[in-house]
Hints:
The structure is a homodimer. Chain A is an alpha/beta fold. Helices cover 28% and strands 28% of the residues of chain A. The first copy, chain A, is globular. The first copy, chain A, starts with a strand and ends with a strand. Chains A and B meet through α8 and β13 of A and α8 and β13 of B.
Amino acid sequence: MPQTTPTWIYRTRPTGPITGETFSLEDTPLPEPAEGEVEVATRYLSLDATNRVWLTEGALYTDNVQIGGPMRGVLLGEVTKSRHPQFPEGTHLSGIGPWAARFVTDGKGFAPFPLPKGADMAEAFAILSVAGPTAHLGLLKIGGLQAGEVVSISGAAGSVGIMAGQIARAHGAHPIGIAGTDEKCAALVDHYGYAAAINYKTEDVAKALRAHAPKGIDLHFENVGGPVLDAALANMKDFARLTICGLISAYNATDPVPGPYRFGEIVNRRLTIRGFIILDHLADFPAITQDLARWMADGTLRMPTHVVDGLDKAPEALNLLFEGANTGKLLVRL
Amino acid sequence: MPQTTPTWIYRTRPTGPITGETFSLEDTPLPEPAEGEVEVATRYLSLDATNRVWLTEGALYTDNVQIGGPMRGVLLGEVTKSRHPQFPEGTHLSGIGPWAARFVTDGKGFAPFPLPKGADMAEAFAILSVAGPTAHLGLLKIGGLQAGEVVSISGAAGSVGIMAGQIARAHGAHPIGIAGTDEKCAALVDHYGYAAAINYKTEDVAKALRAHAPKGIDLHFENVGGPVLDAALANMKDFARLTICGLISAYNATDPVPGPYRFGEIVNRRLTIRGFIILDHLADFPAITQDLARWMADGTLRMPTHVVDGLDKAPEALNLLFEGANTGKLLVRL
């Protein structure tokens, strides 16, 4: 009798938040690895806002998720059977794979996970897999952040924002975070490198940015979109830059989301806006991983993790991202 | 008794289109030029969408127009009295000056107007003063247009759009224009370099762009904003660029204008969006003027002019821009 493994199958396209209809947890066949393949046991799933984008119809940058196929995401796994010379049994791999307890792969799209000495596995995965490279690329390569500059960061208490504050500070810049609770704001300033933090639910963000950055913002790093982006647009310096990493406020929307309303500032302030996706920059990952591992080792970089146990909890855990319910990196542990 | 000269004075900030209350035509003193000054008789006023932006409250890139002061704009004038060695009587000057029949200036911000041999004065002014440099800068320096690329241009029948189509074609690119009547669209293709033109009032612009550029758009040159910009955003290639020259659809708006709605394409398609203002690039003008004059001489570059006679008609003529009532360059002749 062939082996099976529990796998989340994408069944119904959501029109808003993910529901009980979106996925179904099914037993799918788990073949024996052929020559050149490995069997991997999933240890952690990384939950990222972009997972929701992959469920959207239309032209997207990845076609990883098809109705009837397995839901996919970045994961950390361990090789349990190997017929692949580069990935012996016991190797930890990370890459984009199925939301499944086990799976068989030829290893394409996976790389050995570089666990830094003495590091916590979950924290290292949370930093090195998605959030750290995203913040590093977005601030430095895409955003061109310079020492001494003022950088505002939305979604600051999310995993990318937590990385961005610390990386910006390590780079000699002045990061201002925007988040949704006073507790998150306090943590950003106390623990995660932020020079100041603004609660967008209780403060006038445009006014608060003006107070914290009276000469204006050099770089805005956007993870959210909507009114927060407009508040930033109202406070940019002439010739300033905006890096658009994500627009989480729009991902669950059923209707087109209007805005930004202050688009005219692009001309008035001669702004440059750039969107980016880390998958385009995989060649930069070795150098970025080196930076991140060094900063982890010397204590510059820390990531709080929010770990949900059980593959069966993955879909409802993904919704936490859109409710702003997590601080730091959301992971599912298997 | 001191001489006076009719001058448009900015009186009341408009909340929508310019009205009869916005300006008043008043006789203002015209002093004798002092040493180092000249008296200039205005020959042509250039009417540009940015004139309306200068009337808007708030932080803007120029503070040229103050309530109680003269309305200003780009103009072509002739020196009628000179106590300035560089500008003898009879010199034609262009630069930003008051909407007045005559004025006295020390010449700062003005340069001798380089009328190419055999050129029509109005057409040369229309090409060289604002529209030609704007299109040249926006397409080439800011937009990085390359031969063989597809470039979509909104406001294509406006003065900048007319220049942009011809410059793009001369550069070996494939320009697609978007304008508001079938007559304008026909003229764009027949006379002004466009490979294709789309009537945004009768066609589905997104669908028409897809038909004219099935592989996507490399560069979008935006003069309008609103739904046309969204249609372009839906059709960009990965890693494509957008140059934002102006957003005329928003300038007369009394409420914040929502959109673009497809802002998420910035991430999905990894777009770069840049706003620019030609006043930041004055150092490039000599080289640009050389290009434009050469193209005028060899017949590559032509500009239809829409000339309104009489200083007293200037405010109502400015409104024509926002009604899409002009093809090519709108000028007031004195």
